[in-house]
Amino acid sequence: MRRSEPQAVLQEQFGSLEQQQHAARFGMWLFLTSEVLLFGALFALYTAYRLEYAEAFRSAARHNAVWLGTANTLVLITSSLFAAWAAHAVKSGRAIMAELCLLGTLALGGLFLFLKLTEYADHFRHGIYPGAYFRSPELGERGAGTFFTLYYFMTGLHGLHVVGGMSALAIMLLQISRGRYGPGRSTAVELSVLYWHLVDVIWIFLWPLFYLLT
Amino acid sequence: MSDPPRASSYLWAWLTLVLLTGISFGASRLHLGRWAALVALAIACVKGGVVLTVFMHLYRAPFVLRFVAILNIAWVALLCAGVAADVAAR
Amino acid sequence: MTTSSVQPPSHAANPAIRDYLHEGTSIRSWLLTRDHKRISLMFLVATSLSLLLGGIFALLVRVELLTPERTIMDAVTYNRLFTLHGIVMVFMFMIPAIPTVFGNFLLPIMIGAKDVAFPRLNLASFYVYALGAAITLTAMIAGGADMGWTFYTPYSTTSPSAVAPVGLGVFVLGLSSIMTGLNFIVTTHTLRARNLTWHKLPLFVWSIYATSIIQVLATPVLGMSLLLVAVDHAWGLGIFDPRLGGDPLLFQHLFWFYSHPAVYIMVLPAMAVISEVVCTFAHRAPASYRAIAYSSLGIAFVGFLTWGHHMFVSGMSLLDTGIFGVLSMFVAIFSAIKVVTWVATLRRGSIRLTTPLIYFFAFLFLFVFGGMTGVAVATSSLDLHWHDTYFVVAHFHFIMVGGTLTAYLAALHYWFPKMFGRMYSERWGTVASITVFTGFFFTFMPQFLLGNAGMPRRYYSYPPEYQWLNVLSTAGASVLAAGMLLTVGYLAVALFRGERAGANPWDSRSYEWLTTSPPPQHNFEEQPSMDRGPYDFHLPRLV
User: Fold this and answer.
1) 3-class SS at C425?
2) Alpha-carbon span C281 to C512, nearest angstrom
3) What secondary structure does DSSP assign to B43-72, as a single string?
4) Between the CA atoms of A153, A156, A161 and A166, what dihedral angle is there, to the nearest 10 degrees?
5) What whole-number distance in Å separates Cα of residue C71 and Cα of residue C224?
6) Subunit contact B25:A208, Cβ cutoff 8 A
7) Subunits touching C (CB < 8 Å, at least 3 pairs)?
8) pLDDT tens-digit series, residues C38-50
9) pTM score, whole prediction
């Protein structure tokens, strides 16, 4: 069965499809900008507290399982590769390829979350909770508690973004399999993938801050 | 909009990212002391740059999108610098 | 523009085309509309209600302060009321008001577009605003919140009141603000009519555009800091709590990284309105188009570099005090460029003194006076004396409330004919505008004196020697309220009984007057050619 090619619909306020697509991209980039600044506030807090508690932050970071963090970095980078390929495949009309790539991205996203949650569970076993609930005999109270509050907040917020990105990509997967997207109509897929890449970029910065600077 | 980059360019970007992850990991084991943070963040910036330019197509994007990205980075830097300058000098 | 494409003054000549008010009249056609003009009107209703609420809270606060001790309420209620007043006025009126109402209505028309780039996002931003307002108000009225609009930690994270839901509500309001800003930036970049280059845009567009940039870049930081406060309050995470190693000053940094630029989110749109009003009623092109246009961007930029001047007495480092003290002066330069250009435009203009122009003069006085006192309080040594006194309260009410409110009213009168197709009563307009200004002046002028004499802000009781100035201030507030009610009254009458307005009743040259009043659903019956500039007063009349 051959379905008709999906085509983008021109909204009346735009003069051309190119203009409409450019506007959509532009809007997405501005949205990503606001997302980055949302994290930016947390990065600023991290910078300030690290200056205040340099030694405590180092020993607290040593407590994080660096191999888990590194594995997760590689997982996300690879998921980004699949996502990029998926967008490329949709644009060149290879729906099956796009679906497989998106499945790969989703699987890796799931793996990322699994590893992250394993890590949280491990922290909880050691009494490492955020804020006032922080109880860790081996780490000093001052500074280390702040490190882990930031850790939970930043990785937790990032985790929510991973879930958000996966939801968007899952919807794209569903729609591609229904033949709703193709070479003539791919902006939504492209933008969802763009969002996924941003999630990747943020993790690229979280990784050294919480795992490497020991 | 110009046509999308070839699929193989993504593969190269991925390889670069994996390599840089390895370098960053290795560097962190060397215990560079006060340089460690600088090295780790510099590598992270390069990696972020690779994702932005290749995966997110900024390499071929119209000027305005690149401008948005640069402005964005500058603003996060401004926020961090303003706050850090206070804490460091207090 | 050639005479052949000149349109008749009223859509009556072409009955086939209905104006946007009559394009569907069901409730549904309003609530689910994607027409930027209808969304603008919904925002007009919503922000005006917020203004009314905030005004009532302000009056109650002023009544309480009539006497040195208890007048009508206890101290806890007083604290909650000034918090309600601050949060409602800042986040629900001043920040959204001009962009969402007049920006929404005019931006697409001024660039010759049929709508904004993302009409559905535009509608969503209205409902997100409504949701945020509902959460904030419910939380503040049911649970109470007493930390003032600034949410300062550690008080806000330990105060036994509904801080967390209020923070969440303001976070949601911020989302709406980001959506509006994002939409306007993309609209300005992508939907300008052919031939309409950046340097032919009305000055209104430049200013709203600059505002939008701040909205997108700054609001997320406020969102995050309020989220942190909310989480901290709910679960005691202590990210800003000194007992747990936190640093309350960092909250102030994040808060003012947004909230200082937020002052320009309020005042840049006001400047947008003022620039249009001045040119039209001076019947003259701006003395320097580029000076006004570029200084908008300059203010948006420098506004980000001055947040520390709110923290001079907080224990911030001397280094930051120095840096932020110096940088704060730069904002004054850009603001002064604008003021000088407006005044120079009026000079040699052929002035018609109408209600919007009276509001311009009110704006000019409040802005210059408020701005000069702003330079004074941004001087760190002087700030030691004035910080957290009524001097600061009077200063920011002059510049940001006075600036925004007078411009909001100027805009409402100036574009009333365009939005509703009717004229208001010029005589009542004159009376009301003078009343509003007089009321405003006598509300806040005594507060400068009170602050200079040492009365701290937010205090429930005060020494008796401050009483006469407080009574004067309350009297001024009553006059202000009367002026506002009068305005509501005659505008409501004008809405139904006002004289029909032509397409261009003010004889302006700007593009929104090229279409009928009120405009049709897609703004122009036929795409106008924008060959001439928005201030070409040397060319003959448009319509």
Assistant:
1) coil
2) 16
3) HHHHHHHHIIIIIT-GGGS-HHHHHHHHHH
4) 180
5) 39
6) no
7) A, B
8) 999 999 999 999 9
9) 0.95
- Inter-chain residue contact C239 with A45, CB threshold 8 Å: yes
Kindly identify which residue of chain A lies nearest to residue B11, measuring between CA atoms: A81
What is the per-residue pLDDT across B30-82, written as a single tens digit (0 to 9) for each?
888 888 899 999 999 999 999 999 999 999 899 999 999 999 999 999 999 99
User: CB distance C117–A142 less than 8 Å?
Assistant: no
| C305–B78 C-beta distance less than 8 A | yes
CA atoms within 13 A on the CB side of C337: 17
Q: What is the mean pLDDT of residues B10-22?
A: 96
Neighbours of C63 (CB within 10 A): 15
Which pLDDT value is given to residue B3?
53
Instruction: With beta carbons under 8 A apart, name residues in chain A contacting B79.
Output: 37, 40-41, 43-44
Task: List per-block mean pLDDT (blocks of 10 residues) for chain A, which spans 214 residues.
Answer: 75 93 97 97 96 91 93 97 96 94 98 97 89 76 87 96 98 95 94 97 97 90
A14 CB-near residues (< 8 Å, 6+ apart): A20, A23, C117, C190, C191
B78·C304 Cβ contact <8 A = yes
Is residue A140 classed exposed, middle or buried when 0-12, 13-18 and 19+ CB atoms within 10 A define those classes? middle
Q: Are B59 and B5 in contact (CB under 8 A)?
A: yes
Check residue A137 and give its pLDDT. 72
pLDDT in the model for residue B4:
55
Shortest CA distance to B1 belongs to which of C257, C432, A24, C26?
Answer: A24
In sequence order, the β-bridge partners of residue C456 are: C389
- Interface contact B87-A214, CB threshold 8 A: no
DSSP string, C322-377: HHHHHHHHHHHHHHHHHHHHHHHHHTTS-----HHHHHHHHHHHHHHHHHHHHHHH
Q: Which residue of C has its CA nearest to B81?
A: C320
Phi and psi for C70 in degrees, rounded to 5?
Answer: -60, 130
CB of A148 less than 8 A from some CB of C: no
**3-class SS at C20?**
coil
Interval C384-399: pLDDT, tens: 999 999 999 999 999 9
Angle at C328 between CA C327 and CA C332, to 5 degrees: 115
Query: What is the distance between the alpha carbons of residues C353 and C346, in angstroms, rounded to a whole number?
Result: 11
Predicted ipTM? 0.94
* Non-local CB neighbours of B26 within 8 Å, separated by 6+ positions: none
Cα distances from A131 to residues A134, A151, C168, C232, C398, in angstroms, run: 6, 11, 20, 9, 41
Inter-helix orientation angle C163-190/C203-235, to 10°: 150
Could you tell me how many helices (H) and strands (E) chain A has, helices first? 6, 0
Amino acid identity, position C353: L
Q: State CA C367 to chain mean position distance.
A: 13
**Between C214 and C155, residue with greater pLDDT:** C214
Cβ neighbours of residue C411 closer than 8 Å, sequence gap 6 or more: C98, C101, C102, C273, C277, C356
Alpha-carbon span C275 to C282, nearest angstrom? 11
Residues of chain A contacting B87 with CB distance shorter than 8 Å: 47-48, 51-52
Closest CA to C453 of C438, C440, C469, C442: C469
**Distance (Å, rounded) from C-alpha A33 to C-alpha C307?**
20
Q: Which chains touch B (3 or more CB pairs under 8 A)?
A: A, C
- Contact A131/C237, CB-based, under 8 Å? yes
Burial B66-90 (b: 16+ CB within 10 A, else e): bebbeebbebbebbbebbbbbbeee
* DSSP 8-state assignment for residue C193: P
Listed residue (C501, C505, C530) closest to C518, CA to CA:
C501
Q: Name the residue of chain A whose CA is nearest to B3's CA.
A: A91
